[in-house]
Amino acid sequence: MMPYSLSPEMANFVEKTLSYSVDSLDIADQRRAYSRMCEAFTPTRPAELSVKDFSLSGVAVRSYRPHHLSLEHPSPCVLYLHGGGWVVGDLDSHDFLTAALATDLNAVVIAVDYRLAPEHPFPAGLEDCLEAWHALQAQAQRLDIDPRRVAIAGDSAGGNLAAAVCLALREAGERQPVGQALIYPGLGGADELPSRSECFDAPLLGTADLAFYRNLYLAQDERSPYAMPLNATDFRRLAPAFIAVAQFDPLRDDGVCYERALREADVPTEFDPGLGLVHGSLRGKGRVPEVDALYRRLVAALLGFLRSSL
Q1: C-alpha R_g of the chain
Q2: Is residue 249 among the annotated active site residues?
Q3: What CATH number does the domain containing 231 carry?
Q4: 20 to 30 A Cα–Cα from 211, which one of 157, 205, 254, 263?
């Protein structure tokens, strides 16, 4: 492995994460190992949350509603799409983050349990995310949510899906989210991007892993911008974006390229270079100072989106 300058806390986080890995390429084995790893990093939920599992138009979701929300006005909301290479992950895997966001934003967070590859390759997962978005808009009154104050966010594969939802909504002539927060997203950058070679054996995600997950998700070569948003030719009229990458991540330059494309299309952007971070390190929240700094910037960006529509 190439030398990566990690803080002691980050190195410990990486070591603990890797202790749950398995050599098996069997998807069921990988999902079980991922779930065990996630559970080890998931704290007790804050007591001041009401958490419910239900479905939106047939898509399983989990809602986190803080007890301190105003009863006089519909609530702001974040639709959260989990990472996991489109192959692993579920409502439990990112509970550490969605529960914290609901508390710190004092907003409803709705996490989406979209269908996974390889059983359900593209566009199944994206279709579920769009279905959840449309159902949330249509049922906003019942959910006590302000449909005009909904942001979308996701990490890794979830960042890909969040960006794709924004592209699909624009093409359909529908209202954009008030903002999109993409955390170390995989957006279909070229194999020649510098981060692919500079971070080819980076901790927790290497360049070879990208091809493995992408092949499972796409099943075949797919040039649709809804599969890989960097394939889009028009980036105008998309939701304002907060894009955070990880310094030691082969996907780093996907976020760099997407932020530039949005900015050049006059979309308001905020970029976080993720100094000292590795892919998937949000799970180190509360353990790694540089991750805590990223989390604070994510919260600030989402608060900005939700308040901008007032």
Answers
A1: 18
A2: yes
A3: 3.40.50.1820
A4: 263
